[in-house]
Amino acid sequence: MTATDYDLFVIGGGSGGVRAARIAAGYGAKVALAEEDRYGGTCVIRGCVPKKLFVYASRFGDEFEDARGFGWTAGDVSFDWATLKANKDREILRISQVYEGNLKAKGVTTLDTRAVIDGAGAVKLADGRRVTARTILIATGGRPSRYGDIPGAAHIITSNEAFELEKLPRRILVCGGGYIAVEFASIFAGLGVETTLIHRRDKVLRGFDEDLRDALMEALAQRGIKLVMNEALTGVARDGDSFHVALRGGGSLETDLVLSAIGREPATHGLGLETAGVRTGAKGEIIVDSFSQTTAPGIFAVGDVTDRVNLTPVAIREGHAFADSVFGNKRVQVDHSQVPTAVFTTPELATVGLSEEAARALGHTLDIYKARFRPLRNTVSGRAERMLMKLVVDRDTDRVLGCHVLGPDAAEIVQMAAVALQLGARKADFDATVALHPSVAEELVTMREKWVPAS
Q1: Are 21 and 108 in contact (CB under 8 A)?
Q2: Is the pLDDT of residue 107 over 70?
Q3: Active-site residues: which are they?
Q4: Mean pLDDT of 296-317
Q5: d(CA 389, CA 371)
Q6: Can you tell me whether residue 236 is helix, strand or coil?
């Protein structure tokens, strides 16, 4: 075998790439990893972590308000964006340094530079050096999609810039209907910003259970977020310190900030994939098989750059499975069929398994169990917000196919429900489980009445 500089060269220091590098090094491979920005990737730098910190901040207003119903008297309260931003930056720096430190502790060579594919078995660094490797892993993640070619598009920011705002706007227009759009709409509304969400479809969160979609839209509207559905931007013009936004339907809006959150795309531009015969799809995603192997021998890809299931834990699982398969003498495939996910709106929602609509499309005959109620906390605080819990059950086998929750701590509840679904739990198993009372989660094991649609 021809000698190479490394056994494995990883391009991208996000969750998937870092996990793969660490595990491969643990198997004795000589590993290098190149990252042109900061270690941690989208999740740590401009995704999951800073977003969740902003979500926490946006919910304290509710806490202060609800406290009065429980006898607390709160004095004057105020919010300082600069303090939140500085503390967020400090935490991100800490986590990024942990990522880098963990790599070095495993003996991985870290290169703080851009790297691109330079033919079979080689990468080129930004300083011109050419490095060879027996195996190359691409883990460059994704980037925000831009709104499109409309007049004034340069005025529109993405989620990347939203994390770095110097000050809060008084009004914001959020464009999109996926995770990022509804989460940022909730964050800004919770921080007191007059928030409008515009989406080209009739509902947000395409692909989620319809009951969840409807209940979330109702809750967002109750929280003062203006929902403009079946609409799109056709132009943005600056008007002093604000913007005039023209709409496809002929109307217009005035706002102080326009945020595009219409999705993300694989970060493959300029990676030199064509030099090694790495094939990509219509959106630029790297095409891989079930073992993350690309169309080029010796080149693999994991995470959002492959556009399979674009979630951090999935990228980590894919990176680990790759290292096990290639360097650990264990052929491991990742099962993408039972992945829990959460949307950190307020109220938050979480889901695992099949939606009612997807289950019916697959031919299942279903029993549906639903509970809609005000949590005990809300009855005393006076908050009108209601919780939704739903189980999708195959009538013939009694197996629970999907679990869907909207309300406080939905993500924490569904994480544990995901274990049950992974084990193939039946509705009878849920019924036989003793309820933990009083809790909202107990509804999952006390629901007995099948839902019957109105005729």
Answers
A1: yes
A2: yes
A3: 437
A4: 97
A5: 5
A6: strand
**pLDDT score of 1 more than 50:** no
**What's the CATH architecture for 347-446?**
2-Layer Sandwich (3.30)
Q: How many angstroms separate the Cα of 6 from the Cα of each of 3, 54, 118, 130, 200?
A: 9, 40, 15, 12, 48
Among residues 176, 224, 173, 192, the alpha carbon closest in space to that of 84 is found at 192
- Give the pLDDT of residue 454: 67
Report whether pLDDT(455) > 60.
Answer: no
Contacts of 387 (CB under 8 A, 6+ apart): 347, 371, 372, 373, 374, 375, 405, 406, 407, 408, 440, 443
Please, are residues 106 and 288 in contact by the beta-carbon 8 Å criterion? no
* Total number of residues shown for the chain: 455
Give pLDDT tens digits for 235-288. Answer: 999 999 999 999 999 999 999 999 999 999 999 999 999 999 999 999 999 999
10 Å Cβ neighbour count for 413? Answer: 21
Q: Is the pTM of this model over 0.85?
A: yes
Please give the CATH superfamily to which domain 153-262 belongs. FAD/NAD(P)-binding domain (3.50.50.60)
